[in-house]
Amino acid sequence: MRLDLLPRARRSPWLDLLSPALAFAAAVLIGGLAVAAFGVPPGQAFLAYFVAPLSEAWSLQEVALKAAPLALIATGLAFCYRANLWNIGAEGQVVIGGLAGGWVAIAAHGSEGATVWILPAMLLAGTTAGLAYAMIPALLRVKLGVSEILTSLMLVYVAQLLLDYMVRGPLRDPQGYNFPQSVGFDEAARLPALMTGESLHAGAPIALLAVLLATLVLARTLFGFEVRAVGASPRAARFAGFSDARLTLAVFAISGGAAGLAGICEVAGRIGQLQPEISPGYGFTAIIVAFLGRLSPPGILLAALVIAVTTIGGEGAQIDLKLPLDLTRAFQGLLLCLVLGADVLTRYHIRIVPGGAGGGALP
Question: Which residues cross the membrane (predicted)?
Fold first, then answer.
């Protein structure tokens, strides 16, 4: 017996719309069973994970601060993934962006004349550095046919080790009692808070603007049509005159630039200096966010908020309910699997073929 996946002749728009919600409900149900196995009432865990992060002003700000870099990075990655190209190294591009922009802030530290230009220069340096770092796997693929999956992933560790070396060596604060960190950034080199005395900073509207811009580019421009066409049918796109090499460089530039911008926003926002770790894995989590959002910028924004809520809720549940933080990561992975599975079932139906061996391939 084997299982074949056959394309549905007609797809229900209602089912397409409801399938992520059904997948989320199934993930919550399975998560409730897992929580019960730890001896915690599922209702109490649900309140801790999904209600508590949305119940107070400070926790809402934390959700926004978590969601903003995830949405920004995932939106850039969506351009790659829609074109059937696989940038797995966004974490390295985040780190390089933060390092380059932070270096600008350190170089101008204490300079009174840098007040006006320092923050734009940092954002530009971070974006450019992330873009340039993403060009390495892109050029290796275009020129030598090297897998971008391997090269982009391996470059993550190069970026992390470079940051660690810089904050322990050339960029270390000489007055910092030998701690591996740079000097604190000047006030002019920090992203301004949106409200006085609050933690939410200008990185959140930057991410919203990027999501809006990506939505317009993908839906209303020739470049967006090219990305969609190459992803849907590479051979047909080549017959139409679209260049694989040019598109590869373009989408890697977009994804790398977005990741680098997220990196410097994180450094210039809540951190305020360079240190050995500037990202809690945003570049990797953004891959989950991109697919949870179905590679659509508005969907990515919603997925980033969901992941941010579960992350903040998971931290609270770890403190209040003594639940392991790894349970949160398992839930996020389960949610991704269920959403992808729901997408498959809305596009294909399963046919059981008796007497055969092996599984059917996607047409």
Answer: 21-43, 63-81, 88-108, 114-136, 148-167, 202-223, 244-264, 284-309
